[in-house]
Every structure is written in structure tokens, then in C-alpha cells.
Design a protein that fits this description.
The complex is a heterodimer of chains A (962) and B (308). Chain A is of the alpha/beta class. Chain A contains 41 helices and 16 strands. In chain A, helix 10 crosses helix 19. Chain B has 308 residues and is an alpha/beta fold. Chain B contains 13 helices and 10 strands. In chain B, strands 6-7-8-3-9-10 form a 6-stranded mixed β-sheet, with helices on both faces. Classes of the chains: A alpha/beta (962), B alpha/beta (308).
Chain lengths: 962, 308
């Protein structure tokens, strides 16, 4: 026990050091560098080579390999990271790239030139600067332990001082918060980032050198997922940004691990303890992690819908392009295993595994691409399916039943893994799924109720497939796998075309907006995890059948990282792309690498080949072609159709000029179903706020606010910047908690309800930044807004049930009706991320028409619009209100617009209501004039008519609306 | 103030594209010593992009930027700060995670070799904005919008540039705050610095600048004195608020006779260039692709939000 504590402290220090490096890179470039541990692996290897083979002194070799580690960090920054940062890639993309980098760095360790003489290493052990030892609490501490005890605290202190005291340290932090601003202060951004990466590389090298002796013989793969999980868990304690907290996290995890190890004497339970602890950290620190806003893909990474020239749009090949592609691929898939060379037993096994990997990457691409959650543990799901198949097959379950049970188990497991992380989004899911990857082979598959204790192998018997008897044939299994692939492709495609899939993209892009449409983003994230888990676990059952026996050696955590490559290479989010990506990686790995092994040695072997191929794919695809194979295929197809169209028309297709701001057709119409919820009592006050107070981080933002809005009223909310207007809206919509007072909607108290619940009561709102859902087309955004009234279930959408298809058709018709009434037809299938600010504002209004709230909150609906556009917006707002028959609370800085719009106005300042009444009354109120309007005409007349200086005193508000 | 001698800042015939989308078409601009110029125009007109090109954050595909007689086109944004060309970016310009004092120290980064120079520069900033001195240990991200804008403007007195460019001075700020900022800008102007201010509001622009340049769709459409614009109600309305539908086909007002305005090429000369550019990739220019220029401010804001 005491010994465990001492060992825990020491290993905790090394985890902490790794975590500090991860924090440093996170602060600099805002992404989780999963390759961090691998930066130093090469250094550790080289140190042993220098000391043992070349006879260098340890003290000479140590600084040299630190420099090498720093150089590796700088090279990665210079060659890869800098380019991605310049292209403003999302944190999840960067995280995926770092997986690729770690694979390539791992592959580097197999180059013979850097490897020390193995027998010498085994005989002498990993080199140390001194060999003194002493014993504490029954544990003998050797040189490596003493080194850790001395070096790590010193390093952490030095780093902290550097970041907080030195100019360059502050520059690193400045560049981390605001790179453009830093450059505009003359801070050389590139040099600063290079410095940070060099530091991280050096730190990683030191960690590796300190860690290596504990592993006995040096093993580069030892710096794999299990170490990474501990480092990420430690970093998560500090929300990935705090160095002292990362230190504490490392110590906590180290102690937990070693103490449980000392108590149980086996690694399985201690891995479980580490996993549970990391999951707890993620839950407790959800807000700190979630505050970092991750997991968003930017619109540029979304594969935009293909542009098809008008003249060929109605051709059979174009209309049925998806089906034709599917039939063609299916034909190839069916014919392949009977072709010569591929018809041998082993080739058919390989082909089956390739198809299973394609299914897995379909499951991954929807998770990573649509919902923006990176899973690092999907290989464990394959294992789960395989072990389940072995267990159930022994009880003579038939294959279809096994597949269904495996799918259900996969869905449940993924949901459980997702639960701790789901509140904080993308980053946290990466951490908990990595935990799954680690804990599955070390603990889960060792349990007798699922697998076999003591890493023993389990036989997977052939199982029955109802009309065909027992499935003995390898070819039969291959066709079953192809069938499952077809099913999963069709199911995911129909998901994406209906509400559940669109909600996944929407919750990735803008979770707050999703919740304002009455759907909880967390449940959408969980649904994506569950669907993905179900697909992969079902594939796992077939995987087990293909192998015929299962052992934990077949499901190492490392492979979960490799599994990400096909999804990225295919183009994230594209289902056909992910199948193509799987083929692009596994086909060469199985059918080409055997022929190359004589040339490349260990490199040519399957795993090494996968590692190199996957690594290159993960790094290169995001750099040169973010859309992957899918976008390459699409642009080829577009080019082909374009040339066909040119032949047809005999000239270029006309380049249609579109007007910049849509012209609404009158009258504006809301969705045709009645907007009023019959359950709500009539005549209840739409919104009543009493004694509302809110604090953010100890600062009182609102105190004792009373506000009431009557049925059909338009009420303005004015006040200086920082008065608490937006905060008030956030509290009303439930996106911020109230610390005192009550909010009630239509007579119902909602103070403690989640945003989506409030939306269901008829509350709607927009957001100041009007981001909408960059990855969704305009009609899809409206479809999401219709979610509350035209729902589609996950399962029925996946099997594309008739009633779902009907709902979807009806919803699309409604969406198009609204789109047309606002004059947005031109943009129906444009990604909202590609709209201009003005058009996006109109589109956001359209989503409100679709959601049809009875109480609408508008936060600066004209922010970012130029004067002319803002003027056109006023009448539009009025029309929308007319057609919705709702009450409105609106924040506006544009005084003339606001005054012409509102029945009543509340003025807030310093978090309190200082005046209320008709626009003219509030305008005349001296307190308001003093705090808000000021006395300067220049400032008030932001969008008013241009008043010649001589006639400044004439009344303004009345002339504002043209 | 009149423009005397050679211009302190000259932009010659700049073209700029975000990817395949051209945003600036042959833009030329001259700023005299001590002069204050307002860049006006609708969203997506290219005002902020022009400032980004001038400051070196973006590289133009054609044209040059000349600062005080010296071509700085090839110099990086960091180097241009040393040359005396400073941009106060729009939106969140401060380092939210750093304290006010640290922010100021970072703004004085180019002076870091002399700790005395840094100290004096920071004192100048506190002198102009006493509010910042009160909050020196507060994290910048927790301050109000107006205070953050003060912190951003402090760069002007710390670096004492030759040319100060301010992007979106009044964006999202309440009128009283804007008014207070205008006083500060006037004080900064009094030090003799030349100003280029991007504004959406003519009134705010007119309060600090004597000359206005109006941009539309990446081209300069109109230049004139702000006083004149204010006097001619109809002209200003046509330019800034959009002409009534019937009058849309009438030629745009181009008062070229003003003595104060420096000579400039007639816009007609640029239109063919734009058409030629548009012809380059006819098939690939989908309507959706036309718009990203206008989405950039929003994207920038989103990016700033992510970082902040």
C-alpha cells in the first residue's frame, strides 16, 4: 500500500509531464495532440543507441536527444500543423491529423538505423545517469525514479515561470488567444508557435527518456493508447489549459493506478480504475472542457452538394446517380471473390475483413463527420461483436439474431461511454472512447461472462443462417458481410436525408440553436454514438466469424486509431467515400504489402503497412484535399456533367447573377400547420420574469429584473453594452442558469427547465452571431427548425419507414413553402455557411417561421448588416410577426428601427431595469437619456436619415422608417 | 487638415481573392500625412479586406502597398508594425485570457529590447485611458465591449505609428460608448497620426474623418469630403441607403471636381478587369460561391469567438 503510494507518485509525475506537453500544444493551437507521446519516442530510442552502442556519456546524450525531440516537434509544426492552422481547420480535424502524425512517428521507430543493438539493450538495461538506489516503504527506488523525482517538479516550475513571467511566454499565450491580433502587435506568430512546439517536443523527449527504464526493454509502442489515456485524463482535469491542474491530475491518476494495482495484483482492475477515474474527471470538468468549444467542422470542410447543370439535370443517369453507383459497386463486390487469384480461401478471408472494415468506417464517418465526435475506441466495438458472437453462437443462436443482439449491445455500450462526455462535446468523447479502447482488451474481454479470463483465446463457431443451415462457407460469410455493408450504407444514407441525420450535423455546428428548436443536443450526440456503435458491433460479429477464434491480441487499442484513417481518406461525412477509403487502405494492406515485405522488411508487413498508409492518409488528405476521395469523385463527376452539358447547349452554361438580399414575396407565410399549441391555456401571459438575478463567475450580471410581455406585444430591450440584455435572453431561453427569481412562460414556471423543454412550450429565439448550421443546406436548416412539430424517429428513419417518408416529404414541402415566401428559393440547396450575412439573417428568420414560436426572442437581428439591408429588415420582421401572431422581445442597437417596431420598451443598465413604457416615454426618460442614448446626435443616429448639421434638433424617430 | 507632400500611405491597384472568389478589384487609395480617411460601404464591400491587405495579414494577387515612400508589399504583418503601420482589428481585438497589463505589454512587443520604452509606452496608454489603469490586473475578456475597444485603441499611443487603421470602430457598441471612443480617437489624431477608419455608419465616420471613400463590391465607387456628404442629403442617401428602385439605373454620383480629393482613375477603367476576372472560371462560379466574401466578417467573428 505504502509502496503503491510511492510508485503512484512517481508514475503520476511522468503522466503529469506528458499532460503538460499536451496542455502546451492545446494552448498554442487549440487541439488535442494525440501524437505528443510519440514525439519523444525516437529520442528515447536514440539515447539508448548513443550510450550503449556508441559509448557516449549519458550526460552528453541526454541534451542531444532533447534537442532531437524539440526538432521533431518543430518539424511537425513547420510541415503540417502550420499549414492546417493557416487554413483554419477545426479541432477535430487537427486531432485526426495528430493521430496520423503519431502513426508515422511510430513507424519511424522501426527504421533499422535508429534501433540499438537489442541483445546489448536486454543485457545492460536502459541506460541511466547513475545507479544509486534506496528503499522507501518497502519499495526499492532506482536511478530512474530518483531522476523523475528531481527533474519533473523542476521542469514544471520552470515552464510555469516561463509562460507567466517572460515576454516570450506571454507571447505564446497571446498568440494562443488571438493569433491575428498578435501579429498586428508585431509578435512573430510563426516563431512563437515554433517555440511552443519545440518546447512540447523537448518535454516529450524528456518524458520518454524518464519513462523508458521502467519498461525494461524499450518498446516504442509502449507510448501508446494506455499512456495517452492517462495523460489526456490528467490534462482534462485542467480543462486542457491549466498546467497546475494537469500536474494534479497526473498525480491523482498515478496514485489511483498504483494503489489499485498493489491491492488487486493484476492489471485488469487497475486499468478499469484508471478508466473510471478519467470518466469522472470528464464529468466533473465538463464545463471547463466544453467551454473550449470543440468538435465543430467549418463549412469549408463540408462537402457541398454537387452542382449539376440545368440541361442534364433530368437525365436518368443524373437523377438515379446514387442507385446506379450502388448497383455498380455491388456487382463488383459480388463478382470479386470468384475471380481468379481472389478465389482462394485466404483471399476470401481477406476480402471479408476488408468489407467488414468498410462497414466499420461507415459507422465511424457518420459519427465523426456528422456529429463531430471523434471516437478512438471503435476497434473495441468490433471485439465486442466478435466475443458476443462466440458466446451466443455456442448457445446456437442464429446469425440474424446475433447481429441484432450485437448491434443492440454496441449501441448500449457506446451510449454508456458517451454519457460522461456528452455534455461537453467532441474533445471529451475522444478521451472516454480512448478509455474504452484501453479498458476493453485489458478488462472487458477478460471477464468470463463475455470473453475468457487470462487473455485466453475463444473459439467462434460457425452459426446458423435460417434457410441455409449452418454457415460454413467462407464465400457465404463474405456475401453476408456485403449484405450488411449494403444495409448499413442504405440505413445511414436515409438517416442523413431525414431529420435524425440532419440533427446530428446541426448539433455539431450549433448546439445552442438546436436546443432552441426543442431538441436536446446531448441526446442527438448520444443517438449518433448509439447508431455508430450498433453498426460497428454488428460488423464485429462477422469479424469474429471470419477469424473463427478471438483473443485480445486481435483487438489492441492501437488499432482503434488506425481505424480512423478510412473515414478521413474517404472524406468525413461521406458514406460512399468512407467505403472507398476503407478499400484504399485495406486492399493494398492485404493484397500488395505481402509482395513488398521482402523489400521493406517489417515495414512491409500488414500492420506496419497499414500504419504508414493510414498515417500518410490522415496527414496528407486534410492538407491537400479535405473532402477526401468523395470530393475528388464529386468534382470528377461535376466536370463530366459540365462537359456533357456544354455539348448539349453548344455553349457555356449561363453564369446566373443572383441578387444579394432576397426579396420577400408578400405575404410572408408561416408553416401551414397551426402554430398554437392547444394544450396551452389561452390568455396566459406569454413571458413573465420576476426578481431575476444571474451571476457569471462571481460577477452579478442581472439583479432583480422584472419584466412582462403581453400576448401579441412587441417589446424592445435597450441598454448600453454589457448591461445584461443578451444575458437576460440567455436566462429566459435556458442557456444560462438563473441564480434567483423566476421565469414563467404562458403561466408555467420554467426557471429550472432545459432550453429544449422551454422551446417545446412555444419559446423561440435567434442568436446574435446568426451562425445557423454551416454544414446544412437552407432547407435542411428549416427541417431542423420543424423538428418539434414534424418529428422522425431514429429507427424508423434508418429503415426509411413509409410513415417517416411521409413526414419527411410533408416537412420538406413546408420548408419550401416558407423558403419561397421569403424569396429564398435560389438558396434552397446552398449550405447556410456559404450565405452572406444578410441572406443568413433572413434564413434565420425563416427558421423561426418554421419553428413557429408563440414567444419570440430576437437578439440584435440586424447586427452585421449594412444600413440599407437593416432598413429592409424592419418591414420583414413585422411581416414575420404578423404571420406568426406571436409576442416578441427584441434587442436592437438600431434605435430608429427599434422605435418604429415596438409597442413598449424596457431599458436596462447595469443589470437592472431602469425604465419601461412606450418608445417615446422611454426616449424621454432622463435616466435613459443619460445612460443609454447619450446626448450626442452622432451616436444616436446610427441608421437614421442623414441629418444636415444645421437641423440636428428635429425629431428623429418618426422619420426613421422610410 | 490638408494633404501636403507625398502620401504617407498609398495603395496601388490591388486585386485580392479568397480562394477563387475575387474580393478586391484594382483598388487604389492614397492617404496624406495627418489626414483621416473613412472607408465606407455595405457589408462585403471589401473594406475590412482592404485593411487586412494593407496591414499584411493577406497577400494581394496584384498591386502594391507603399508606406512613406517605401514599398512594403513583400513585408509580413509583423514587420509592417515595426515600419509604423498599425491596424486595430474589428470585433475582439484583445487577448481575452491575458490581463490588461499583459495585453499592453504585448502591444509594446516591438519595443521589448528597452524596458524603459515599454514602461513609458504603457504609461502613455494609461494616461489616455485611465479606466485601463484601474483594471490593469483584470482579465481583458471580462471587460465590457467599450473597455475592450479602449484597450485595442491603446495600441495607437503605445506604438505611435505613422498610419493607424481602425476596423469597425463602433461595431456592436452602444451610442454613449461610441461617443467616448470618438473623443479618444480625436485625441489620438491630435498626435499627428494618419487615420484610416472602416465604418458602417456615415455619421460616426463624419465625426472623425474629413474625407470618405465609398466601396462597393470590391471597388472604390466614390470619394469625397464627409462634410459634403452630410450636406447633400440626396447624394448620401443614394450612396449609402440605396437609391429608390426607379433611380437604380441612373449613373452613380461621381463628384470628381473636388479639389481636396486626390486624383484617381475613373471607375470605368476597372470594370473590364472585373469582367475579365469573372470570365476566368465561368463554369465553376456557382451562385453559392459568389457570396463567401460577405460571410467573412461572420466567420471571423465566429473564429474570434472560438479563440476567446
Amino acid at each position: 500500500m505504502g509502496g503503491g503510494l510511492v510508485l503512484g507518485f512517481i508514475s503520476g509525475l511522468t503522466y503529469a509531464l506528458l499532460a503538460v506537453g499536451i496542455v502546451l500544444v492545446y494552448k498554442t493551437n487549440r487541439f488535442l495532440n494525440l501524437a505528443h507521446a510519440q514525439f519523444g519516442a525516437l529520442s528515447a530510442l536514440l539515447l539508448s543507441k548513443f550510450v550503449l552502442d556508441d559509448g557516449w556519456s549519458w550526460w552528453v546524450a541526454f541534451p542531444v536527444v532533447i534537442a532531437i525531440g524539440a526538432a521533431v516537434g518543430m518539424l511537425v509544426e513547420r510541415l503540417i500543423i502550420r499549414r492546417l492552422v493557416t487554413q483554419q481547420r477545426s479541432p477535430s480535424t487537427m486531432l485526426l491529423v495528430s493521430v496520423g502524425v503519431s502513426e508515422l512517428l511510430l513507424a519511424l521507430n522501426y527504421v533499422p538505423a535508429v534501433q540499438p543493438n537489442v541483445t546489448r539493450l536486454q543485457f545492460k538495461g536502459y541506460p541511466l545517469p547513475f545507479h544509486s538506489s534506496f528503499s522507501v516503504a518497502g519499495i526499492v527506488l532506482g536511478g530512474q525514479h530518483i531522476l523523475i523525482l528531481i527533474l519533473v517538479p523542476l521542469l514544471v516550475i520552470a515552464l510555469t515561470l516561463f509562460l507567466w513571467r517572460s515576454v516570450w511566454g506571454k507571447a505564446i499565450r497571446a498568440c494562443a488567444t488571438n493569433p491575428d491580433s498578435a501579429r498586428l502587435c508585431g509578435i512573430p506568430l510563426r516563431r512563437v508557435n515554433l517555440t511552443a512546439w519545440a518546447l512540447a517536443g523537448g518535454l516529450s523527449a524528456i518524458t520518454a527518456v524518464l519513462q523508458a527504464p521502467s519498461q525494461g526493454t524499450y518498446n516504442a509502442a509502449g507510448f501508446g493508447p494506455d499512456l495517452l489515456l492517462r495523460a489526456l485524463g490528467a490534462a482534462a482535469l485542467g480543462g486542457f489549459t491549466s498546467i497546475p491542474m494537469a500536474l494534479a491530475g497526473g498525480l491523482l491518476i498515478g496514485e489511483a493506478e498504483q494503489v489499485s494495482l498493489a491491492l488487486s495484483n493484476s492489471t485488469g482492475p487497475s486499468e478499469l480504475v484508471v478508466f473510471v477515474l478519467v470518466a469522472l474527471i470528464v464529468i466533473v470538468r465538463a464545463r471547463a472542457i466544453g467551454g473550449q468549444r470543440s468538435g465543430e467542422l467549418t463549412a469549408s470542410e463540408e462537402i457541398r452538394p454537387a452542382t449539376v447543370p440545368e440541361s442534364v439535370r433530368n437525365r436518368f443517369v443524373v437523377r438515379r446517380q446514387g442507385v446506379l453507383l450502388g448497383v455498380l459497386s455491388l456487382f463488383v463486390a459480388v463478382v470479386f471473390p470468384v475471380l481468379p487469384y481472389f478465389n482462394s480461401l485466404s483471399s476470401r478471408f481477406d476480402l471479408t475483413v476488408i468489407v467488414i472494415m468498410a462497414i466499420a468506417s461507415v459507422g465511424l464517418t457518420m459519427l465523426v463527420g456528422w456529429s463531430g465526435q471523434v471516437s478512438l475506441g471503435h476497434f473495441a466495438l468490433l471485439g465486442l461483436g466478435a466475443y458476443l458472437c462466440a458466446k451466443l453462437g455456442a448457445h446456437s443462436f442464429s446469425l440474424p439474431l446475433i447481429l441484432v443482439i450485437a448491434a443492440a449491445a454496441g449501441a448500449v455500450l457506446m451510449t454508456l461511454i458517451g454519457l460522461p462526455a456528452v455534455r461537453s462535446g467532441g474533445l471529451a468523447v475522444a478521451v472516454t472512447t480512448l478509455g474504452l479502447a484501453v479498458v476493453a482488451p485489458t478488462w472487458l474481454f477478460n471477464q468470463s461472462w463475455l470473453g475468457a479470463p487470462g487473455n485466453a483465446a475463444v473459439i467462434v463457431d460457425d452459426v446458423g443462417l435460417s434457410p441455409f443451415g449452418i454457415l460454413h462457407s467462407r464465400l457465404g460469410l463474405y456475401y453476408v458481410a456485403v449484405a450488411l455493408l449494403v444495409i448499413s450504407v442504405v440505413a445511414t444514407r436515409s438517416l442523413r436525408r431525414s431529420l435524425p441525420g440532419q440533427l446530428m450535423v446541426a448539433s455539431r455546428d450549433n448546439p445552442r440553436a438546436v436546443s432552441s428548436f426543442g431538441v436536446a443536443p446531448a441526446s442527438v450526440r448520444l443517438s449518433a454514438l448509439a447508431v455508430s456503435g450498433a453498426i460497428v458491433a454488428a460488423a464485429g460479429a462477422l469479424w469474429g466469424l471470419a477469424w473463427q477464434s478471438m483473443s485480445v491480441d486481435l483487438v489492441p487499442a492501437q488499432l482503434s486509431l488506425v481505424l480512423l484513417a478510412p473515414a478521413v481518406i474517404g472524406g468525413l461525412g461521406s458514406v460512399p467515400g468512407s467505403v472507398a477509403g476503407a478499400l484504399a487502405i485495406y486492399f493494398p494492406a492485404f493484397f500488395i504489402s505481402p509482395h513488398l515485405s521482402s523489400i521493406f522488411g517489417s515495414f512491409g508487413q500488414q500492420i506496419g503497412f497499414q500504419l504508414v498508409l493510414g498515417g500518410i492518409g490522415l496527414v496528407v488528405i486534410p492538407l491537400i484535399r479535405p473532402g477526401g476521395l468523395a470530393s475528388i469523385g464529386q468534382s470528377w463527376w461535376e466536370g463530366f456533367l459540365g462537359s456533357v452539358a456544354r455539348d448539349v447547349e453548344g455553349r457555356d452554361a449561363p453564369d446566373i447573377m443572383r441578387s444579394r438580399v432576397p426579396a420577400p414575396r408578400e405575404p410572408v407565410r408561416a408553416a401551414s400547420t397551426p402554430a398554437v399549441d392547444p394544450a396551452a391555456p389561452d390568455g396566459a401571459v406569454p413571458l413573465r420574469i420576476t426578481g431575476l438575478s444571474t451571476r457569471i463567475g462571481g460577477r452579478a450580471i442581472l439583479h432583480d429584473v422584472d419584466l412582462e410581455i403581453g400576448p401579441g406585444e412587441i417589446v424592445g430591450l435597450i441598454g448600453p453594452n454589457g448591461a445584461g440584455k443578451t444575458t437576460l435572453m440567455n436566462v429566459v431561453s435556458g442557456h444560462l442558469p438563473a441564480t434567483g427569481g423566476t421565469v414563467s412562460l404562458f403561466g408555467q414556471p420554467v426557471t429550472s427547465l432545459a432550453p429544449d423543454k422551454r422551446s417545446r412550450l412555444g419559446l423561440g429565439r435567434n442568436f446574435q452571431e446568426a451562425r445557423l448550421f454551416p454544414g446544412l443546406q437552407v432547407w435542411e436548416a428549416l427541417r431542423v427548425a420543424l423538428a418539434r412539430r414534424q418529428g422522425s424517429g431514429l429507427l424508423s428513419a434508418a429503415v426509411s419507414a413509409p410513415w417517416t417518408r411521409m413526414t419527411e416529404r410533408r416537412a420538406r414541402a413546408q420548408a419550401e413553402e416558407i423558403i419561397e415566401s421569403l424569396g429564398l428559393q435560389t438558396w434552397t440547396e446552398t449550405l447556410t455557411g456559404e450565405l452572406s450575412t444578410g441572406t443568413r439573417r433572413v434564413c434565420e428568420l425563416a427558421t423561426q417561421l418554421a419553428a413557429a414560436p408563440r414567444m419570440l426572442l430576437l437578439d440584435e437581428p440586424t447586427a452585421g448588416l449594412a444600413q440599407r439591408e437593416a432598413e429592409a429588415f424592419g418591414p420583414l420582421l413585422k411581416q414575420v410577426r404578423e404571420s406568426l401572431q406571436c409576442s416578441v422581445l427584441v434587442i436592437e442597437h438600431d434605435m430608429p428601427l427599434l422605435m418604429s417596431l415596438c409597442d413598449r420598451v424596457y431599458a436596462v443598465a447595469g443589470g437592472q431595469v431602469i425604465a419601461s413604457g412606450t418608445p417615446d416615454e422611454v426616449r424621454a426618460n432622463e435616466l435613459v437619456v443619460a445612460t443609454y442614448l447619450g446626448t450626442s446626435d452622432v451616436a444616436i443616429e446610427r441608421s437614421g436619415p442623414i441629418v444636415p448639421p444645421r437641423t440636428k434638433s428635429r425629431p428623429r424617430a418618426t422619420t426613421a422608417a422610410r | 487638415m490638408s494633404t501636403t507632400g507625398s502620401p504617407v500611405l498609398a495603395v496601388h491597384d490591388v486585386d485580392f481573392s479568397y480562394g477563387r472568389l475575387q474580393v478586391l478589384f484594382g483598388v487604389s487609395l492614397e492617404v496624406g500625412r495627418g489626414e483621416a480617411v473613412a472607408l465606407l460601404g455595405t457589408n462585403g464591400a471589401g473594406k475590412s479586406t482592404l485593411l487586412r491587405v494593407v496591414s499584411g495579414l493577406e497577400q494581394p494577387s496584384r498591386g502594391s502597398v507603399v508606406l512613406d515612400g517605401r514599398d512594403v508589399s513583400a513585408r509580413s504583418a509583423e514587420d509592417r508594425v515595426r515600419d509604423g503601420l498599425v491596424l486595430v482589428p474589428g470585433g475582439k481585438a484583445v487577448f481575452a485570457d491575458l490581463t490588461v497589463a499583459e495585453n499592453l505589454e504585448m502591444k509594446a512587443f516591438t519595443l521589448r529590447r528597452s524596458s524603459r520604452a515599454v514602461r513609458e509606452a504603457v504609461q502613455r496608454a494609461y494616461g489616455l485611458f485611465p479606466r485601463l489603469a484601474e483594471r490593469r490586473d483584470q482579465r481583458a475578456g471580462t471587460m465590457s465591449g467599450g473597455e475592450q475597444q479602449q484597450l485595442a485603441l491603446a495600441k495607437a499611443v503605445i506604438l505611435e505609428p505613422k498610419v493607424l487603421c481602425i476596423d469597425e470602430l463602433s461595431l456592436g457598441l452602444a451610442p454613449t460608448v461610441v461617443e467616448a471612443l470618438l473623443d479618444s480617437v480625436r485625441a489620438i489624431r491630435a498626435t499627428g497620426v494618419s487615420l484610416v477608419v472602416v465604418e458602417q455608419s456615415l455619421n460616426v465616420a463624419a465625426a472623425i474623418c474629413e474625407r470618405a471613400v465609398f466601396m462597393e463590391k470590391g471597388e472604390i465607387r466614390f470619394e469625397g469630403r464627409t462634410a459634403q456628404l452630410l450636406e447633400r442629403d440626396d447624394l448620401a442617401r443614394a450612396v449609402f441607403l440605396g437609391a429608390p428602385p426607379a433611380a437604380k439605373t441612373t449613373p452613380r454620383p461621381r463628384p470628381r471636381k473636388q479639389a481636396a480629393a486626390p486624383p484617381r482613375k475613373p471607375p470605368a477603367k476597372r470594370t473590364p478587369a472585373k469582367k475579365a476576372a469573372a470570365k476566368k472560371t465561368p463554369a465553376k462560379r456557382t451562385p453559392a460561391k459568389r457570396t463567401p466574401a460577405k460571410t467573412t466578417p461572420a466567420k471571423k467573428a465566429a473564429a474570434a469567438k472560438k479563440r476567446g
